[in-house]
Request: fold
Amino acid sequence: MSLALIRRTANLVSMDRAELTAAHTTLIGFTKRAEKATDDSLVATFVDSAPLFTLLSTENNQVIYGRRGTGKTHALKVLAEHVERNEEEVALFIDMRTVGSNGSIYSDQSRSMAERASTLLTDVLTGLLNEFYSISIGTIESHPNPEEVTQRLDALQSAISTVKITGEVTQQQTDETKAAEGSSIQGGGKILPAIGFQASGSRNSSTQNFENRVVTRKGSEIVHLMFGPISGAISDLIRILGKSRVWVLVDEWSEVPVDLQPYLADLFRRTLLPIDSITVKIAAIEHRTNFAIMRDRGEYIGLELGADVAADLNLDDFLVFDNSQEKSVDFIGNLIFRHYSTSTTEHPGFKGVDEFIGKLFTQRPVFEEFVRAVEGVPRDALNLIAKVVTKAFGQQIAMVHVRAGARDWYEQDKAAVIRNDSALADLLQHIIREVIGERRARAFLFSSKSRHVGIDRLFDSRLLHILKKNVSSHDQPGERFDVFKIDYGCYVDLTNTTRAPEGLFADDEGAFAEVPKDDYRSIRRAILDTELI
Reply:
């Protein structure tokens, strides 16, 4: 600790127990998820780790990467609020978790790819149409030509709902006076890259008390999604509404089944990206995305990162403690302080984040340990602070409270995913044994070209964290690796014991460094062998 910091900490007047209790009560009551917060509170609690918001607010089409809980939804909603300040611009927010009436259809492998993909794309376009309806309702009364707005909405509705049945059609009439009500579609086939989705099979439909007959049609069903008319209808609608720019903000992209993602991306490329007045922002989890299917001669279905859309913003680059300790400590400190300051409960006030940390924690290194335990996930920071102050309730937070709270949070939230999955639990124990037990380290290398479902699941559950991608190793030149770090909760009980990890990696001389060298060529014996897991 620097001399200046020691003096500043020493000069702080300790809070009495009643004040600490009031402060702790406020910290326990934080709103953890952005979708449950009001727009005003989202803006008030947003922390910009420069140049994060500068990158986010450009008019470039963009993918925003980040693990679950890193604040992708929060950032998009703050961007939406920022856009709405300009009356000539509008933000359309599409949450892929809530698109469509039955999301399970998209993942139902018993259905044909054609049916799953066409249902998804139609549902997304319908969601986009509903957003435009909401905008139009607020505009139509003051619009000089309201009928033109409704005409454009009808044109868009028509463009996204065309279904055509071709092939041999047979009709069968019956004298029954009542027939079963409803319809069903069955089919299987392949997806055509340019204009639509083709499936072969049958479509059975019936009417009740209408003409007293049952009509059966047989033939090839083609679900046409005409990209040109859809794009034209959207462009005309934006023009007639008088909007200079429309921001389409797509959240929870990774909730879409991976095999369907390229076709949804292709829809965006062919309908939204050609319109100059539209900016598309997509929030996704990097390991759970597949934006394109590459074909021969450079052809592809979907979005090409870097060409069609930028992928230059990863929230993990701003938040992971081991990537930038100073930036992480500053970010998490401001995050908690802003949530505290904007809380509506009665609580003691502080002049700034430094005083806040100085009075609530026994010393600065305790707060730094808290930030380390968070592993760069803002949502975990809000959950963990509640656990920690529960342990320290009415007292200043000490190191023992941070570690006890981190252990409880790990057992309650993160470890839950492995309790009922013995294979995943065995994989995690193997990694802990190999990395911490054998190497006394906290991180390892894993081949960038390898995919392992268990590693992906541990990453999704925040039991493993990516520190850096596409790095080299001294032992295997030419190979590229991703650097994974084991979650703090996995080794917190080993801290201050002889089995505690000594650092991230061992260098050529066997010494440990907290921050590895940029090219990682000093790493030895840190490669996790896929054949052993």
About this structure: DSSP finds 20 helices and 16 strands in the chain. Confidence is low (pLDDT under 50) at residues 1-13, 163-211, 219-223, 507-524. Residues 113-140 form the longest helix (28 residues). The first strand starts at residue 62 and ends at 65.
